[in-house]
Amino acid sequence: MRRAPWEGGASKHRERQDVSGDRTSEATGRGQSSVLAVALLIGFVVLGMLSVALVGSVTLDRAEDNAQNQRVELAFVEFSQSVTSVAFGQGTTERVAFDIRANDAAVRHDETGSIRVYTDEALIANRTIGSVEYTREDDTLAYQAGGVWRGTGADATMVSPPPFDYDDGSLNAWIPIVTGERTLTSSAIDLRRNGSGVALDRQSVVQGQLVTVEIQSKYYGGWADYLRQQTSDASITVDHANETVVMRLGEPAIDSTFSQGVFATSGDIQFDGGNSEIDGNVSAAGNVSDHSRVTGNVTEGATNDLRIIDDVIEKKVRDAENDSTTPIMHPEYGGAFLSGGATYYDDDGFVLESGEDLTVDLSAGNVTMIVDGNISLQGGDIEVVNGGGSRAFRIYSTGNFGMGNSEAGVDGESQYFQVYGTSEMQIAITGGSKADLYGTIYAPRNEAVLEDSEPNAAAEPFGTGSKCEGWDTCVVAGNSEVSGAIIAGPTIVGQSTDIEYDQDLVDIQPSLQLDHGLYPPPITYLHLSVYDITVSQAGSNSSIAAPPAAVSPVAAEPLARAA
């Protein structure tokens, strides 16, 4: 059937309308997408601008903070230089700009720190030290005793060094101490050196002494790092709880020889009963009971200038405990043999009974034994063989030394057997019919260990304790022979007992056998100066709120070994 012409046209017209409608929808969709894209683009641009603004703001703040920190740091360094100029220079006053741009710096002249300097013989200085401190949020910058420090506590660091200089055995310390107004503003500051300038000036030869510097400071971490750089790790100890740095200088040394038979560095030397004698020179901090029993010179009221070695022995024990390569030796197990060139460690002391002898061979060099405890020869012997030259068997003990019915060392060669003890070592050569010691004992002290009638612990195993009561050193066994030298505390020499000084010891110096890297460096010369500097705002006439602590009366006394 044919369609009417108008029927086909209408159909085509509808198709064209449908196509036109689809195209309109597509165009509308594309238009909406374009709008969304533009909106997103604008959003991204705005977000980017905000981010840039935020980052820029943070960067600007950070730059301003850095600029402020640098400005304050420079102001403190210049302030330090000006204080040094006033302290050490010809003039007594100086005005300095203090560009901190903040009203939060203060002079603190109480409870901010202290410094103590002393030797074995005297207190040199004991002073409080003030500081000028700037704080801003978590940042702290401070001037103290010639140095500039950033931060506090263990985290403090040095910005500018204090005038503490150690070089080749000499310590030069110039300490400016600031006092004055508590609050300083950003303006000019007046510095004034008080009095004649130097509040304390000491120049001393301190060779053979231990020099100790204690600095208690809010900025102790920075002090510790700086002083380590100047000296060594072995010189510095830190007490975090008390914010204190301790610097020790003076390698332990014994500036003497075994030059006499007996030296009681504290107390008396007493002869008890007949037929006892000391063949050689003797010295006592106290009295010698019977000079006729001494064949050499007698010195009473002697001054002890020998080095006490407690710290050396304690350190040797600690090092041996922590060194897994040091062989542990227990001679009491019998048949012990020690070879030359080695160091051995006994962690609880030893007893040698009959048949439990110890043989030491020096053919390959020195033999060293570190003993954390007592040594007691109860019938067992110590035999030293193949000695020669400066080789020796040396024992360093934290405890006591006793022997009875035993023999130790080499007859006629006492330099080959040497015992070193602390200032609390008790010594007993007693018990049985005979006890022969061919060697030296070095255990000086400034005070007696035992009170009157107090038992000597080293003598108790031998049943002769009553003869030794109250005496740090007891040589009372009949027919015993001691050849060598004894340096210790109050000494009693019993009936039928001889102590013979070995003349071969006259040039023998006690040896501490130190590993130099493990001990503080030596010191020969000490120069310490302290200066008082008043800090005030320019034009201010305000008085000082609190003066610094006065120099200790002890510090005003010259050193016994002053140059």
Automatic annotation (TrEMBL):
Residues 1-28 are annotated as: Disordered. Pfam families: DUF7289, DUF7305. InterPro entries: DUF7289 (IPR055713), DUF7305 (IPR055729). Residues 300-507 form the DUF7305 domain. Residues 10-25 have a biased composition (Basic and acidic residues). The chain crosses the membrane at residues 35-60. Keywords: Membrane, Transmembrane, Transmembrane helix. This is DUF7305 domain-containing protein.
